[in-house]
Amino acid sequence: MSRQVVPGPGAIRVGRFIGRLGVVSIPAVEVGLDLDQRVVRRHVAKLEAAGWLARAPWVWGEGSVVWLTGAGIEGAGLGGVRPIKSPPAPTIIHHGVLVGWSAARLEHRGRLWKSGRELAVEHERWAIRARCERGHTELLPDLAVWLKASAPPVAVIAESGGRREDRQKMILEGWRDAVVSGRYGAVRYDCSSQSVTHWISRLAKKVRLTSPAFVAAMQLSAEEIVALPPAAASVNELPVTEPQPSVPAALPRHEPVQIAPVPVPKPPHAVQMQLPEPSSAPKPETPDAAAERERLYREIRGIPEPTPRRRWRR
Questions:
Q1: CA-atom Rg of the chain in angstroms
Q2: CB hemisphere CA count around 80 (13 angstroms)
Q3: For a designed S-S bond to 113, which of 10, 140, 145, 200 qualifies (C-beta 3.0 to 4.6 A apart)?
Q4: For residue 232, with 0-12 CB atoms within 10 Å meaning exposed, 13-18 middle and 19 or more buried, which class applies?
Q5: Is-above-0.85 flag for pTM?
Q6: Do residues 204 and 216 make contact, with C-beta atoms less than 8 angstroms apart?
Q7: Can you tell me the distance from the alpha carbon of 26 to that of 63, in angstroms, rounded to the nearest whole number?
């Protein structure tokens, strides 16, 4: 009779990180939880032996991908989060791996975050409305991160560039309206390549979604994430600044405040305008002056003098 495997606290911690994201690569779990590779593999093996976890091979050099089963979701204390359909489709795996590295960065830095699967439990609270070909649809971010406790969360979206340009513009318009309404403080796109980063930035500019409410950056590698200082400002994070009310300097109580009267300027003197005298009516031109004017005109223009016409004789 085989002994039943009961995952310990360390394995449950690993399982919770996996269950929150859905599908995630083992290297992202190692970086996010700051655990040694052998430790993570040992915990994954225990979860798999208990029937809480399933795995599949992934791209060579990037490790396996793992996800929790229904029993694993309940055992990890993630009631309400829907389990992944096993086995997941290749598109779901590809997107989940990209999201997993974003979550590893946030977890490594000690940020407070929730996955889109956790936000779906309160769908009406976190979903945004965006246009689509059928009218309207509702979207959730892949991750929501709180950079400040008093500020709305930042929506983090993993993008691999597989959508049509017109559809992506409608999605960006939805996130722009979500930032304007105050549901989300800003939007960050973690892109799979540099070309996708330029593409998303260009479309965001067309829909008037710009910094500081928007940033698009290429997904960081494992080495770059490990080099980030925990819970500290970094150029790789999206800054969210809140306008602070201006506070006037406090005046000493023992000094009275004297308000000097503001002098009222005197009205300017009225300026009397002198109108020009009406010109006299022009004098009629005499026949001699008209003839002289005609002679000068012909002389300037080079017109010969008219010859007198001969009278007709019978």
A1: 40
A2: 11
A3: 145
A4: exposed
A5: no
A6: yes
A7: 6
